[in-house]
Amino acid sequence: MEPEAYHHPDIICQRATALAELAATVDNTKNRQAREHLLDFMERICRTLQPPRPAELKVINGTPDE
């Protein structure tokens, strides 16, 4: 992979998602807060890098996004 590719939004989002999936496997109380911070961080990264376009918005949990 070219060095520039590491900075591509899709790659960053994929890596953040992989970290969040790893964090989700942590079950003990000591690491629960760290896991929650990592999941939140991953969500913010992906949302910032790939904001949804109106045509791509879907119904989530039975409620349409606005």
What does the overall shape look like? elongated
H-E order: HHEE
Please state how the strands of the largest beta sheet are arranged side by side: 1-2
Largest β-sheet summary: 2 strands, antiparallel
How many angstroms does the end-to-end distance come to?
37 Å
State the helicity in percent bands: 55-70%
Structural classification: mainly alpha
- Tally of distinct domains: 1
> What's the Cα radius of gyration?
15 Å
In round numbers, the mean pLDDT is: 65
How many beta-strand elements?
Answer: 2
Please indicate the percent range of residues in DSSP E strands (runs of 2 or more). 5-15%
Uncertain residue segments:
none
Question: Tally the helices: what do you get?
Answer: 2
Quick recap of the structure?
The chain is mainly alpha-helical. The chain has one domain (3-50).
Report what the structure shows.
The protein starts with 8 loop residues before the first helix and ends with a strand. A hairpin with a 2-residue loop joins strand 1 and strand 2. The chain has helices spanning 9-24, 29-49; strands at residues 59-60, 63-64. The protein is mainly alpha-helical. The protein has one domain (3-50). The longest helix has 21 residues, at 29-49.
